[in-house]
Model the fold of this input.
Amino acid sequence: MLLLLMAGAAAVAATAPTAAMAAVSSDRGGPITRSEVIGRAQYWMDQHPPYNQQGSAPDAGGDFRYRTDCSGYVSMAWHLNASPNTQGLPGYSHEIARDELRPGDILNSFYDHTLIFHKWEDDHGGFSYYSFGGGSSGVEPPGHFRTNINNATIDGHPNGDYKALRYDNIVEESATRPHPYAPGRVTSGRSADGRLEAFAAGTDGVYHSWQTAVNGAWSQWRFEGGPRNAQLSVAANADGRLEVFALSDTTFDHMWQTGVNGGWSTWANFGGGGHRLATGNNADGRIEVFASNTNGVFHRWQTAPSGNWANWEGTGGGPATSRLALETAPDGRLEVFALSDTTFQHLYQTGVNGGWSAWENFGGGGHDLTVNHNTDGRLEVFASNAGGVFHRWQTSLSAWSGWEGVSGPVNSELASDRSVDGRVEVFAINGSTAAHIWQTDPNAPYAAWETFGGGGTEITAGHNADGRIEVFATSSAGVYHRWQTGFSAWSEWGWVGTSAGPGIA
Done:
């Protein structure tokens, strides 16, 4: 997926990400996600404070000042409630093997220097990192660099002096409040124990396959019954139980896990028929479901976390027979995007767990859409039409850019997910080709499209408990998947389990 880099004798400057802001969602001294650590590291790189061991500078939230040197940089990125030196950082972390390094971990030389690991760049030990005060001068400003884990020196200091450390309060992205899973004829979600579960719509009902171990192999497909030729969506209840929603042109049904990581209920009716659906979670954990039909967009929500359901209500309009997508704003408010053949609109919660705005125009009509969020929390929306793929993103948390083309397969089905370091990756498939693009760094522009496979009918993406993206695609022959074998390489396409599953035309 990423360009392979030659391992040089010394670190070289990497292409800098372009962050608009740094994510500020952790409490000082508390748990923090890997993507927020990287976002905070990028913030000081953008602010460019001068190196001064007696000086200090504020973090993105402005609630604390950290010493402007290498260990102060780590302390700021980890959002510590202190600014220890390199000898003090082991008191906030534990040692790991070097091959376990992941975004937000550090390499720490006890007496001399420390740096923030970003990501592996190739299969030969190349990696990128953030550093302050390294290099030949020892007073370099915050920067983003590349080197090789096998080099004699790393950032100007002997390789053998470094130990790999992991912050004790680091939180894997999968443990944070879940963002909505993408709906479609094939969809997936993670059980509370981290295993992915996939669902696919057949002409005779819904099929189901699941990982038999976390990050592991897949079961055979099991026929679950339910609506035929349905649109599917998965959401997690506040207690961790997954719930599956299936909408056909004649009925809307749902089923749910009867226990955390457990078996499944029978299908129960959830409403009448419709066109498309999407599900998400309120900040308090209550599931909210949206569906479109020929009269517009409607919604229904849990009245208590993991509890009963309100009746269906209209949303005040919305495009008829539209494709739907949900995303979660940084403060927990849900936002809904609705794309029909002729118009694109959106609406959003006016308060956390609260009511909804009126529908607003978001663009012209199109074929399909996907929405995701940047490391700094800003939402980014992609849509396809006969001209290719276009995107629009928040320039702040209350304003949007204009539409911008990124080329790509025309009239394609779209999906997106995020690498463990927070980079958005977009997947597109039409009848003749599959392709993908990815951010070159968190919050950054995108690389050129790269072929990802042959043509098909549907595509969706999720990620394993260890952060590796897994992509599912369908054709009339069945359901295929492809997954990251590391953070810079992909498997070949293969069946889910050892069988084709339902063909989806």
Q: What stands out?
A: Confidence is low (pLDDT under 50) at residues 1-24.
